[in-house]
C-alpha cells in the first residue's frame, strides 16, 4: 500500500480509503499496509496504526498484514505489536531489524517479540534496517523455532538468496520482491509478491499468479513479461512513480509526492503516461 499526502505532507486519509477500495478492485488477495512502499519509517506510530485500521475497514474479501516493529526501542516495539494487532489485521510482519548477520540474536528477537501477538507472523528483509539479509539456513530456523509463516525476500538473487530460502522454507511461503526473477522464483516454489509494482498494478500479478497455478506456462510467461514492463515503467522515482500511475488509473487524489522530497521530472511523467496508454490499449489497465 502507498500513503497519499496532501501538499503539506500530512496524510490524506480520505484518498487512502479510496485507494484501498481501488486496490481491492484490482482483484488482489492480500494487502500489505505499513510497509516500505508506504514509507513506514517516515510515519509516526499513530499514523501507522490508523492506516492499518483503515485498510482493515476496506479490505473486502482480502486479508491484511502490517509491519509491527518499526519503533527503535524494545519496549516501544512491544507496544507497537499490541496496537497493530488490535487494529484487526490478519497477520503481523516483523523486519529483520538489522540482525541479518547475527542469526542467534535474530531468532531470539523474533521469537520473543512474537509472544506479544496471537496472529500469524511473517518476516521482511527490509533494507531500511541493515544488515537486513539473512541466509536460507537462518530462515529455516525462524520457521522451525519461531513458527514464521513466510518471508518477503529482498536479496533479489536466485543463488544465495531466493533458492536457499525455498530449500529451507518447510511449510512457509517465500514471497517475492524482485521482478526480474519472479518467473524463475515461482518455478522454484516461491508464491506471492510484495513489492512497489503491486502498489499500482495488482491486477498484473493476480493474472500472472492465476496463469501459473493453472499450469499454462505460455500464458504465465506472457503475464510475467507484462509485469517486467510495469516494473521498468516505475523503476525510477520511488515511490512517486507508482503514485502517479495510481493517479492515472482513477485515484486522482494520489499526488506524486512523498516525505523524502522525491520529485518526478517532466520526462519521467511522460514515460509513465506512455506506459499507461499502452496498458489501457492492451486491456491491462483502466
Question: How would you explain this protein's 3D organization?
Answer:
- The chain is an alpha/beta fold and 286 residues long.
- The chain has one domain (13-216): Aldolase class I (TIM Barrel, Alpha-Beta Barrel), CATH 3.20.20.
- 47% of the residues lie in helices and 8% in strands.
- The chain has 11 helices and 6 strands.
- The longest helix has 17 residues, at 217-233.
- It starts with 12 loop residues before the first helix and ends in a 5-residue tail after the last helix.
- 45% of the residues are buried.
- The mean pLDDT is 97.
**What is the CATH architecture descriptor?**
Alpha-Beta Barrel
Please identify which CATH superfamily we are dealing with.
Answer: Aldolase class I
How many E strands?
Answer: 6
Give the N-to-C terminal Cα separation. Answer: 19 Å
User: Number of helix segments?
Assistant: 11
- Counting helices, strands and paired strands, the structural category is alpha/beta
The percentage helix is 40-55%
The CATH class is: Alpha Beta
Summarize the structure.
With 286 residues, this protein is an alpha/beta fold. The chain has helices spanning 13-25, 45-57, 74-86, 103-114, 136-146, 158-167, 182-188, 202-214, 217-233, 240-248, 266-281, and strands spanning 30-33, 63-67, 91-95, 121-124, 150-152, 173-175.
Keywords:
6 strands; 286 residues; TIM Barrel; six-stranded parallel β-sheet; single chain; 47% helix; alpha/beta
